[in-house]
Amino acid sequence: MEDIEAIVVLQDPVRRQLYEYVVDQDHEVSRNEAAEGAGIGRTLAAFHLDKLVDAGLLVTESRRLTGRSGPGAGRPAKLYRRSGEEHHVSVPARDYRTAADLLAEVADGARLDGELRAAAVREGRAARAAAGPVEGLDAVRAVLSVRGYEPRADADGAALRLANCPFHVLSERHPALICGMNLALLEGFLEDTEGLRARMDPQPGMCCVTVESSKNNDD
After folding, report:
1. Peptide bond into 175 cis (omega under 30)
2. Could you tell me if residue 163 is inside a domain?
3. Which letter, b or e, does each residue of 21-51 get, where b requires 16 or more Cβ atoms within 10 Å of its Cβ?
4. CATH classification at residue 48
5. Exposed, middle or buried by CB within 10 Å (0-12, 13-18, 19+), for 155?
6. Does pTM top 0.90 for this prediction?
7. Where are the stretches annotated Disordered (predicted)?
């Protein structure tokens, strides 16, 4: 029921616009920033943002944006970011997550890492073939966005940091197995893309893999 309620909340176009704005940022978003990003008033933005929090789609924290504390520092601002919760809706309910977890547990125990990575490379190649010509970081970014990675270009535009892991729950339970699979999947996808490579680069709150320019990289 909670998953259905979360999806219903996003049916409102203003809430969906606010949600998409918040998750597209690489930092926590204040009410003022969200309101400006959505082109609406701060009070209306605050109302809809808190509805997204109630639905478990966003989480909040309070922090003084000035970095100061004590008298005269001002009130802490309420900041929003995407929740780590996953929401799936299927009627009647289907439990693919348990099946995936059991399969990962068996593969982990049987040390089938190599076989899984080989299968992931094949899947990456197939995804590349289905996508058609993909050249350059912007084109890769567009494809990975559709596949749920939430790619974000770094400051110099030479790499894509993946803000979301499509395999988040499994990677927490079987990190070596699933992160290795994820890397192999993206390696297969980028196999014929000149000047780009995928490499392991785990960072808190991010996907374990980064896509970057391979120029001048011999390692």
Report:
1. no
2. yes
3. bbbebeebbbbebbbebbebeeeebbebbeb
4. 1.10.10.10
5. exposed
6. no
7. 65-84
